[in-house]
Amino acid sequence: AVAAEALRALYQGAPDSVLPVAEQALPSRAAEVRRVGIQTYLQLVTVERLRTLAGHLNDPHPDLRAVVREGLYTHSQDPQFESVVREAAIAVLASDDWRGQEQACLLLAALDRKEVAPRLVELLYSDRDEVMIASAWALRTLAVPETAPAMVARLRELSEPISNEDWGVSHQIAHLSEAIAVLKYRPALDVLRIYIPKNLQYHEIARSGAIYAIGVLFEDAAKAAPAEPTPGGGGLDKAAKLADAALASQLADQLMGRVREATGMPPEFPEVRRTSAIAIGRMGYQSHIPGFKEMLGSEVSADPVELAMRWSIHRMTGELLPIAEAKPQEATGWFLEPIPSPTHADSSGK
Fold first, then answer.
1. Dist CA 204 CA 65 (whole Å)
2. Does the N terminus or the C terminus of the chain have fewer Cβ atoms within 10 A?
3. pTM of the predicted model, to two decimals?
4. Mind listing the pLDDT tens digit for each residue in 280-291?
């Protein structure tokens, strides 16, 4: 504690003065001592110091790992340091340390380094939630088409009923679904459909991610639906489009069932209901607008599910429904608050 306070005082006054002891500060067991060493190296940056800092992407303290990652990203924008940061981050991604792997996933995705996509696919199978989630997010961010089959294969493995409390798996399912939506990879549809029916063994974030992807895959499907073919005309192409339109309509009906199930034993997850309403709006099935308006009623609410229904109606028709007025919220319990004004005396003088 004493060393950290002394180093902080030196750093605030003159970062150069910390430099002679920064090398000794970095391996310290005290996080706050390491923090000053990291800040010094980030402030007085050189190629060798950046390489040293990359080794701290696996720092035991999560906040310091993030400080290093953000600092490396900032310096990577300088052409003289870009290759150093890239090569160091790729080396950390290839390592066996889960802390470094997580931070390297985030950093390399932010740098749009698509060449690391194969390694990210490998890390989808990590036994650490942090790496599972970060690698899936990175694949979604990079959106490399060649990774789509591997992501769907992983999604199939995860789609056996799982514990609703399996946080890492649920978030990875959500990110993989979002990646499929970004790539518009239709072969994933049979897996995504698993998440529409209510199943309490699936977390709401996993189900809402899959439903979001379905809405994107069938965006404006109602407008794209062809007219019924005339006898003997249209050919196989039109028949396939009709089958696709029929499937999209069926999916929209199922999603509407999720939106309607506000009550029940138990009721549907609010996030699933909200995402289902948004998906219907993306798909463009105006036949469900009366159902939306029936559930909205005459009272204006700020409920997220109702806001999603209003958004969908507006997207499909351009109609703007009134939304709830913003209401001030009073937050109390701060360590320093104004003294309440004295209560005014009533008419009796009390």
1. 29
2. C
3. 0.84
4. 999 999 999 999
Give pLDDT tens digits for 138-183: 999 999 999 999 999 999 999 876 665 688 899 999 999 999 999 9
Phi, psi torsion values for 327, nearest 5 degrees: -115, 135
Long-range interactions of 19-24: CB distance < 8 A, separation 24+: 19/44
E-only strand ranges, the chain:
none
Cα–Cα distances in Å, from 158 out to 124, 153, 170, 200? Answer: 11, 9, 9, 15
Nearest to 67 by CA among 98, 38, 87: 38
Residue with tokens 């067991």: 29
* Backbone angles phi and psi of 171, in degrees to 5: -70, -35
198 vs 263: CA distance, rounded Å? 13
Span between the terminal Cα atoms of the chain, in Å: 55
Joined together, the tokens standing for residue 291 give 């159902």
Residue 15 has pLDDT above 80, yes or no: no
Nearest to 189 by CA among 173, 206, 177: 177
Question: What's at 184, amino acid-wise?
Answer: K
